[in-house]
Amino acid sequence: MMDCREMSEFFLKSLRLQTNPVAVRLYLTLEEVPKKPLPFKLNICQLISMARHQGRAAAGTPEGMVCSIGAACTGLIPTPQAYLDGTAGVGRYVESAEAGRRFFQNTFKLGDSGRQFAALLAAPLADACGYEPDVVLFYANPAQIMRLIHSCVYRTGEKVAADTVAEAAVCSAIGFVKATGRPVVGFPCAGDRRFGGTQDSELVLAAPFAMLPDMIMALEDLSAAGRLYPVAPNVMWTPQMPPAYTIGESDLGSGGDS
Asked: Could you give the CA distance from residue 49 to residue 202 in angstroms, rounded to a whole number?
């Protein structure tokens, strides 16, 4: 059985991930949190960015956060009325409150059931030894996400859900996995890009920590058919080129003259 450090190394090496897988845990009380929150307000995507880019673990509480939709998605606060009635999205994502209401209904939020947690800890997966994370986040390009999806569906063939609202995607994904125990793919939102440094090429896949051993087993099995990433191009065919760049009979000469 791999420990967290070995699991992190496996994913980094086999998929050539550019940043650390991130372990997230939600806490019912502040007394349970192993690290003190940072002494300034910041967003959950920033905590995640610290873990995946810098290898730092950091905790956050709703009192020390700015982003209300992220806190609502992760159950750190009850969902504010502006998201319930849709007005928060008017002019930013949708043209009317009614469209906004549907928009935010399609953004998974633990806070719709009220405040459920007191704090969130984000850490590199490699450093999550000694406790069991709730959710593991993988930021990767679409080809790497494809392989992670394959690792999730390998045993059952059941599809992986995708959040296509593109709002508070990573926080919504954390909430979704915590509530359902199922993986989900998300399109990082503008805030994640602005505050968390997420790149244009990156998607995010969130999975329950308990799924990681099966995901690793699946990737090991799948690698028997060839390298997982990058996918090698098929070059076993004859190309067509412009005449000036195509070898003709006259270019071949007699084959032996100098």
From this structure: 13
